Amino acid sequence: MKITRRPVPTIAIRVTVTMTAFQVVDVWTPSWCGPLDMGYLRVMSGAILAGRFTPPNVQVTTAAQVANLIVEAGESHGVRLDVAAATAERFRRAAEKGHGQSDLVASYHASFDNGPDRADG
User: Residue 110, by phi and psi: left (phi above 0), alpha (psi -120 to 50) or beta?
Assistant: First the structure.
């Protein structure tokens, strides 16, 4: 048996998808999910899209303190809680950008090095 190598033709396909943020949320949580639908995601993404960060249910600074307490409790028992540590850092960055007194959903602003960084709420 002889194997010959031939160049494989390639096809470049460009797909452009235009969706609103609410349509993206609908893709993540289709209505057919029933009890698995993520109501919290819908409420919080609505707050982000509307720039509605006050009045806070839980302030960013409070959420940061709780996350730090969780990390410290884990460390005191020899357990690394990497996700909790990353969450605490995210809340710290959001507070540093002026969102310490805003609802914890304002931690969205910690996603950007340069970008949305004003305390709009």
Answer: alpha
CB 73 within 8 A of CB 112: no
Q: What single string gives the DSSP state of each residue in the chain?
A: ------PPP-----------HHHHHHHHS-GGGGGGS-HHHHHHHHHHHHT---S-SSBHHHHHHHHHHHHHHHHHTT---HHHHHHHHHHHHHIIIIITTSBGGGGGGGG-SSS--S---
Mean pLDDT, residues 1-11: 57
Give the tens place of pLDDT for each residue, 32-60: 555 556 677 777 778 888 888 888 888 99
- Give the Cβ contact number of residue 50 at 10 Å: 10
Average pLDDT, the chain: 76
